[in-house]
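Record format v2
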Amino acid sequence: MTRIDLGPAAAEHVLALADDEHLIGAHHSTWIGVCPFLEEDLAFCSIAQDELGHAIGLYELLTDDVDRFALLRAPEEYRSCAYVERLMPGWADAFVRHWLYERAEQLRWDALTTSTVPELAALALAADREEAFHRRHAEQLMERLTTPGTQAAAIIASAVNDHVASAASLFTPVTDEATLVADGVVARSAEALLDDWWAGLGTWAVAHGVDLPPRPTAPGPAARRSRTDDFTTVHGDLTAVISLDPTAVW
Amino acid sequence: MPTTLAERTAGPPVGRTWDDMDAFEAFLDAGGIVEAHDDMPEAYRLEVFRFIELHANSELMGGLTERDWIPKAPGLRLKQIFLAKTQDEIGHAHLLYMVAADMGKKSRPEMLDDLFAGRTRFHNVFHYQAVTWADQIAIAYLVDAAAFASQRAVFQNCSYGPYKRVLKRIVAEEGFHMRHGEEMLMRLAEGSEIQHRMFQEALDRWWMPAVQLFGPDSSDDDPLMRWHIKSQRNETLRHAYVQKYVPLLQGYGFTIPDEGLRHDPDAGWLISDIDWSELRATMRNGGPDSRRRIATAAGSHADTAWVREALEAAA
């Protein structure tokens, strides 16, 4: 991809999705070598690489210098949502985030496949092909970990309940989203996507005997411009090496 | 390749037997390849199993050594690349544990339990900590090259078929890693003063562990040589490595951290005598980062036991 002339609202939307993909890929990457079993190490690592690749593709629509743009912006210039900034050192949390994120991500990419910005539509179609594998991985493992009455099912159900409110931040809209929808840059509003995401979770919860909390609401657009405390740690890692000599080729 | 239904559904071929060790060694000397179902001498089975288990453990723990700096990779594509490389190492462990388990001595869970309990070994280089990003590059450049040389020497004449077949893939991938290490080194060597200094400091830390990776001089009665697992003596591989990497590193303006290093017109580059007590202590899990490395792996393994138990119950 190459940088294109997006309007401010479209650029903001692309940046929000790029930063979310970047940070989820960064979190997934920390699990290499310490997943519950070797096959999962290999699978989760592949997913991390894919998510980083999607972030690169989106950043390339915005800049000619992906690495410096992705890593060296000031915190207030990121547009990530709160959910992808959270540090999750335990596997149950990391996996449930992966599962919830994939379900949300499918809706977010799908809403871009018919975008009036051809480069964005093309990227969404390409990403969606890879995401199908991610979803299959998440859903299959989730199914095997939620046999009713097992310790694993209880751990997962508890984590899902803990996560849903925060995960709704994946549907935090950007400023001027209504214009983007009207112009066909994105097919549907974040609120409409959240409705679908929640309906899907409801179906899953009924099938697995899990009680969910009330439907969460997504924060308003201003939340995309503020960072959580955990972001400081994540950003510290992202910039640890490149900031030693920002002009160098690493 | 089996072509008929009868061939495809037939059980494994009946394993070969040998009258005694002399007959077995004559078979090996003639270029024979041992398969998992063969009735191999117990001493051979145990020695080869231990060697493969050490290799598998080292691939896994090597992945953990490189893992530390992946979150700090100074670029998104670099992060993808180092992830892919580490994924290769974990993939090698995955393959090697299967080959080792098929030898009937221990299952994969038993091997992992022994590793995380500190009862088995892994290569010395993975008992050291990567202190800076340049250490990550030193591992890619120095350690991967040493590992590549070692593994290629085993692959060349390996008498155990399942290991040789897996090594074909591992050696090919390690070759990629080695070239990647060379490219990454060039960036630091030809980069800024900060980068050059970082790599020199990393070289100071990693040169000797990399040289020690080949081990002390082989004994004349090394069973791994006699049974065609290793094809070259440790000191031969070490010497070849030194001949290649001393001039390369010096050519980039780096100083080899060995005050006794000298060049002999006939023998080439000669390094100082190595004090092998450091290697012996390290291999007993007494290296600088052994405790943390094993604790990280063991802790994660214990914390995620519920996942493995759930999957086993659901199978």
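The beta strands of chain B are 262-264, 268-270.
Residues 18-280 of chain B form a domain with the Ferritin fold (CATH 1.20.1260.10).
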